[in-house]
Amino acid sequence: MKTLRFNRAAAIVLRQFYLMRGSPARLLPLFVWVAIDIVLWGFITKYLNSIAAPGFNFAYTLLGAVLLWDFFGRVMLGVTTAFLEDVWSRNFINIFATPLSISEYVTGLVMTSISTSLIGLAVMMALAMLVFGLSFFVYGLMLIPFLLVLFLFGIALGVFASAVVLRLGPASEWLVWPVPALLSPFVGVFYPLSTLPSWMRVVAHILPPSYVFEGMRTIVLGGRFSGITLLWGGCLAVLYIMLAGGYFVHVYRYAARTGLLARYSAESAS
Amino acid sequence: MNKVLSVEALHKYYGAKPAVAGISFEVGRNEIVGLLGPNGAGKTTTINMILGVLQPTTGTIRIEGRDLATDRSRALACTNFTAVYATLPGNLTVYQNLRILGMIYDVKQLSSRIEELLVQFDLKAFRNVKCGLLSSGEQTRVQLAKALLNRPHLLLLDEPTASLDPSAARDIRATIREFTVRDSVGVLWTSHNMYEVQDVCDRALFLSHGKILLEGDPKTLPREHGKVSLEELFITVAREPLTLGAG
């Protein structure tokens, strides 16, 4: 039975901490882009509230949705960016020719993402509450499972995206940056899933964030939202984490077998 | 157990092309073994397989008796390396790099171990300097400090003095020799400097086309094969390996 050594995973987190501490270029993106999103959508909701019929606050559906979606994006990119640091500094041999196991390495990436995404979340919540008057009490305790499902799926997607970069080479990082934007039309961040054509709804039902945004809208509009439905989204997210972890291990073994790991900058083993 | 490293019938094929074709050798405690051969002979492929970053097609690698394929973490915990193609991240300082890798290797009393190595390799002045700002000689010293961080039982050195001036190279050789004897370490050393190999290695393995062609004491090997120097023997291995294989 292989045991996971916390100290080794913590070393991966420490590496990111050292990098961020001395680099505004790494530190600012943790909260600047999400803060700009909140400001932009904050004003849009203010404007919509001023022209729409009184009684409905767009902040709860639009601004809340942007906040949740940006949190998901930060979680995913938190994992991927931490992995890319090893790509950019050609550090694979130094990292993988050590006792560090794959599970310890991936745990380190996830721990990094937890800390970086929480910074982004805190900044977004503070801005949304203090500047645009978004009250999170509207969502009630469901806010916690909403965030949890998005967090789990963000981790799954981050690990999967890292595996894709490991498999296809450094240039493929450009494939992973737009992944959240690619998913957003399917998961109904700003509109009900019923708006989508049927084939898109099928895709939506296998994506955990769809359950979060449907649930959020249902609660805001005063309907009843079943926790069981969200649980299904959570189960899907856990399944995706397992699949993404399995895929990362599969790609790592492929890279070690073909020589890609030792000659990564060549982008292919042949 | 006297053997730190035991390699048996190691093969690595890329498609149908063999990079390493069935080599077997051992490295004992207090022993420095030179792995020699022309470019493309299979030296780095062999070292990458021992480091676990390249999976052999067939064959076994045991470090301190532990099979690398099934007990990777424990086998690599007592191993370390330096290689010109694996420089430490240039965006971290000397101390930060040593700290992170020390945690990964579970080094006990890490802070004092780092300070000890900074003194040993004359790196105190560069403690808080980013590795990317160091000269190649200074980077080599940092890599050697990193390689000794976990007091390894097996040390893999891929051209460790390639970017050092002769004086610094001599000091580094002396340090590694001292460490080898003091801590009962086994060292696998690749170099294209035949003077260095004769000076430092107890035994040399000549690799050609993925096979071990010759093996023996680097001081007596040239004479045994009718050559004046190790360099002349090396050139023969590189250009006319069949004449040696037949002999």
CATH architecture of the largest domain in chain B: 3-Layer(aba) Sandwich
Distance between the termini of chain A: 35 Å
Residues in β-strands, percent of chain B: 25-35%
Helix fraction bin of chain A: over 70%
CATH level-1 class of the largest domain in chain B: Alpha Beta
Q: Extract low-pLDDT stretches of chain B.
A: none
Number of strands of chain B: 10
- Mean pLDDT across every amino acid position of chain A: 92
**Strand count, sense and closure of the main sheet of chain A?**
none
Backbone shape of chain B: globular
What would the principal axes of the Cα set say about the shape of chain A? globular
Oligomer: heterodimer
Distance between termini of chain B?
34 Å
Largest sheet of chain B: 6 strands, mixed
Question: In terms of structural class, how would the helical and strand content of chain A be classed?
Answer: mainly alpha
Number of helices, counting only DSSP H or I runs of 4 residues or more of chain B: 10
Give an account of the 3D structure.
The complex is a heterodimer of chains A (270) and B (247). In chain A, helix 3 runs antiparallel to helix 4 (58-88), helix 7 runs antiparallel to helix 11 and helix 7 (143-168) runs parallel beside helix 12 (227-258). Chain A has helices at residues 6-21, 24-27, 32-51, 58-88, 92-96, 102-130, 143-168, 173-176, 179-187, 198-205, 208-220, 227-258. The two termini of chain A are 35 Å apart. Chain A is built from 12 helices and no strands. The mean pLDDT of chain A is 92. Chain B is of the alpha/beta class and 247 residues long. Chain B is built from 10 helices and 10 strands. Chain B starts with a strand and ends with a helix. The interface between A and B is medium-sized, with 33 and 34 residues.
